[in-house]
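User: I want to check something. If I give you two sequences, will you return the structure for each one separately, not as a complex?

Assistant: Yes, each is folded on its own. Here is the first sequence with its structure:
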Amino acid sequence: MAIQLSDHFTYKRLLGFVWPPIVMMIFTSIYGVVDGFFISNYVGKIPFAAVNLIMPFLMILGALGFMFGTGGSALVAKTLGEGNREKANQIFSLLVYVGIITGCILTVLGIIFLEPISIWLGAEGEMLTYCVIYGRIILIALPAFMLQNVFQSFLVTAEKPGLGLALTLIAGVTNMILDALFMAVFEWGTVGAAAATAISQAVGGLVPFLYFLRPNKSLLRLTKAPFDGKALFKTCTNGSSELVTSISMSVVSMLYNFQLLKYAGENGVAAYGVIMYVNFIFVAIFIGYSIGTAPIIGFHYGAGNDSELRSIFKKSMKLLLVAGIVLTVAGILLSRALSELFVGYDQALCEMTVKGFRIYSITFLFCGFNIFGSSLFTALNNGLVSAVISFLRTMLFQVAAILVMPLIWGLDGIWYSVAVAEVVALVLTLAFIVKLRGKYHYM
């Protein structure tokens, strides 16, 4: 039975609606993980470190797609809840077209400035060469990658989360097959890894574009879209939290790399790369859940259905707690197996990764609530509070922890820093939730 935004959501119906975006986000995260596995095992440690060094910059450029997707889908869901489907389609179409134009501009600028940025990040010699080779190929597919990020949210809003999952699975499998073919068979090295990811991103972005371009059975379709500065501004401010989160996480990753180069050299950067690959997959569960619930929250907020908002909020808190405990335990128990999968060929590097992984896993116990809290206020069209939570969580708290804690505990301080920042951010998130409960009636 098809699940609609207007339904009452039991646990079964809620999980049935959000599991496609959860799996969708996991497979999106697997792009980089598969690249990392093949690069580390078939090309070497230096190229692996180079990809991890330049990746945060590439993610910053793609983050605008998340802003258009999350901020726009909240606005579109609210508009649908108010009963104005034609206006919702116009806003949706405008954001897709703006995303394409923005992606093309950033591709050109990114290719021009990639080498000096790589040098600024600390790359030199052989590592610099690998950064530039990998980065320029990935940048060619940036417009498609931005579209993929946009459609991940809008496919859920269009009541087609299953289609979004299917498209992401196809793109993910494409990436895996091409990685194996290009690196293990053709031995194209870093070029092969970048090409595989770029092609898979093109699949993930262009196929849903063609779907919405034609008549379809979803709530949304691409149409002529008059420029609506107010809607675009509302989308950008509403989705600014997701943009801030993506940019801040990339900046924090850069800072991590700076600190790790200082305290542990190239091995530290490689170890952090392994931890981040698994972190992307684990955190993708929370992000996917937030993407899945945001249209539901936005719709019922627009429709004035307070009882359903309270029901969704209460269920979400319980599910996030269970997921946080499970992922923390899984991270600790699987740390050695996952570390050996990527860097088992280097014993010293593997041991460093295992230790860092076990410490970092504490983060999963808290971060889900912070991710959902930010998404909650985005869905309620309160971009300011959402952005404040995201900015303080990922930029201020994490940057401060990464700078200060290594001075006290050395390398271990770097691994503990994100967990400490998440705990502080959780206090802030809960304070906003309690303070604004009377305005939005989710408690």
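And separately, the second sequence with its own structure:
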Amino acid sequence: MKVFDRSLVRKHRDRAAAGFAAHDFLIREVAERLADRLDDVTRRFPLALDLGCHTGEIAATLGGRGGIEQLVQCDLSPAMAARAAVNGHPTLAVDEEWLPFAPASFDLVISCLSLHWVNDLPGTLVQIRRALKPDGLFLAAVLGAGTLVELRQSLMDAELAEEGGVSPRVSPFADVRDLGALLQRAGFALPVVDADAVTVTYGDPLRLLTDLRGMGEANACVEQRRGLTRRATLMQALQAYQSGFAGGDGRLPATFQVMTMTGWAPAAGQT
């Protein structure tokens, strides 16, 4: 099933790379949460892979933490990979759907808000499990089904009112049960998936759209309506956002549901 236009995802990330630092607050927040989880694992990871590295936020956040001795970075976007490479870690431009790594290469695969753009997530998880050494750790955060519910509802209401129908304007996301089943299907041992929320507030909803574009998270659904959003539809959506979700201080919430996946490559005697 092809849900996302991967070439468009790459284009969005290439375009965002130069100004990414002005919009990377969510990536850095989630990278810090992943680093905290890694600190709780009492073992060393001689060779780790940062899958979907953006411009190097995981490497910057870890800064030698987490028991990682050598980190390899890769990203779908050559422009982002080039910016990540300045931190001195080996870096490649790699499509997460076609991993070029030999079996049992890594002790750890970590991924921060990248895999929700993958079409064949079951296949990618299988490739990740194969790339891990026995008893290697997979730790990843993706955006979940509760992400941008406010924006999603406002756009849907506006498009129905102005255009008489709806099209995918916010990407579809998985939930906890889906991801847990996929980890088991991919052959991971001791799979765990949990959800948390990061809520950001905005005085102007247009700033949210600017941040999404600046993060390289603009809509890349294959079935999205082509062409620019009608001005009347956009104005209706902004009005619906304001009237439906504004807090007492007038600021507008934007919710990002962060799903964290943990799994281990099977090994003898594993507990």
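Because they were folded independently, the notes below concern the second chain alone. The mean pLDDT is 91. Residues 6-264 form a domain with the Rossmann fold fold (CATH 3.40.50.150).
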